[in-house]
């Protein structure tokens, strides 16, 4: 893997050198991990004209959740744990005679930016922008393998929950149990805060679980994901509790299922982000649910659970092969509840079988 990280850093070096910078400072945690292999809390990565340096406020603990830093990097632990590694890196760059440094301005506060200028006043600071995020868009097969394992863990945790008694249990209890099961099956932790919504809460995106108890006849919507070696996936499913679904529940579920299938089928290399969104959204719009829809139909996943690309009406850009995304349309009817169906897939060309579905828990409307 050391060669992989070196290649990634080389690509970044080409980008900032072409923009006229002599060095770059990467501070966003996911970007640090992508380039360095590991990102202990607070660590930053300085890419310079000589060797690259990973600066950490504290010595790495070996926690697998933080990854393992590339041994080819020089690891520097700050003597004072309260020091700001960003400011220390700027001083180090200035001391090396570097005249220009690209930084991730979208990750830095104004006060940190000023502190960098104060310790290295002759250092010209430029904006690296989202260069690393753009490099992260297309995943290699090892990254996809991590996502595949994260999805398997997530499917296992959800499948076990479906075999248990649910009536009378609270949303909060079910969410905590799901997160425990993720870890039991090998996850470093949940990819994001698990969402469980029952009855009138069902179908809400990122609903924060409450003490409402599951009742017979409820819709139950669940959204969860595993974090495995830093890579995060997502699955969302909706079920009916304890009885045959009502006619309105079947009708709403079938509609959202059709929209989700349309979105999945639109995932082909070269497809515009907004066209994928439209494929799912127009079915729900046509059924009169435009007021109930989320701003986007899906998003990229990887070292973060919500990264580029965004599958939204105004999104610009086109899909490449080997880009993992979610497709997660949903409809929530205020006071009644709703349906959300969410999968993680990898964009693949038709010659390779089309989009690869990573989350495989059934999408049949089950009565639990």
From TrEMBL:
It holds the Pfam family Creatinase_N. Residues 146-348 form the Peptidase M24 domain. Residues 8-138 form the Creatinase N-terminal domain. InterPro entries: Creatin/AminoP/Spt16_N, Creatinase/aminopeptidase-like, Creatinase_N, Pept_M24, Peptidase_M24B. This is M24 family metallopeptidase.
């Amino acid at each position: 893997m050391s060669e992989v990280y070196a290649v990634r850093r080389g690509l970044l070096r080409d980008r900032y050198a072409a923009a006229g910078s002599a060095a770059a400072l990467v501070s966003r945690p996911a970007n640090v991990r992508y380039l360095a292999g590991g990102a202990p809390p607070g660590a930053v990565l300085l890419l310079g004209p000589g060797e690259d340096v990973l600066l950490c406020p504290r010595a790495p603990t070996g926690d697998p959740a933080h990854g393992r830093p590339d041994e080819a990097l020089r690891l520097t632990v700050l003597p004072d744990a309260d020091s700001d590694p960003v400011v220390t890196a700027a001083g180090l760059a200035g001391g090396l005679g570097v005249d220009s440094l690209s930084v991730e301005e979208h990750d830095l506060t104004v006060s940190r930016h000023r502190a960098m200028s104060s310790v290295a006043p002759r250092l010209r600071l430029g904006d690296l922008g989202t260069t690393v995020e753009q490099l992260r868009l297309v995943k290699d097969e090892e990254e996809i393998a991590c996502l595949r394992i994260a999805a398997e863990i997530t499917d296992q945790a959800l499948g076990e929950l479906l075999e248990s008694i649910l009536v009378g249990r609270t949303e909060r209890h079910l969410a905590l149990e799901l997160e425990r099961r993720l870890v039991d099956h090998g996850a470093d932790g949940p990819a994001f805060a698990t969402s469980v919504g029952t009855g009138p809460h069902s179908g809400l995106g990122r609903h924060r679980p409450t003490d409402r108890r599951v009742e017979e006849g409820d819709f139950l919507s669940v959204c969860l994901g595993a974090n495995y070696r830093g890579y995060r996936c997502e699955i969302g499913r909706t079920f009916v509790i304890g009885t045959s679904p009502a006619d309105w529940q079947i009708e709403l579920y079938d509609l959202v299922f059709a929209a989700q299938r349309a979105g999945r089928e639109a995932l082909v290399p070269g497809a515009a982000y907004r066209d994928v969104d439209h494929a799912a959204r127009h079915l729900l719009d046509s059924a009169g649910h435009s007021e109930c829809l989320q701003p986007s139909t899906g998003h990229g996943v990887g070292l973060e659970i919500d990264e580029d690309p965004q599958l939204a009406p105004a999104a610009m850009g086109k899909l490449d092969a080997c880009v993992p995304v979610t497709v997660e349309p949903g409809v929530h009817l205020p006071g009644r509840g709703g349906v959300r169906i969410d999968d993680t897939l990898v964009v693949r060309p038709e010659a390779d079988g089309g989009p690869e579905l990573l989350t495989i828990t059934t999408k049949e409307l089950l009565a639990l």
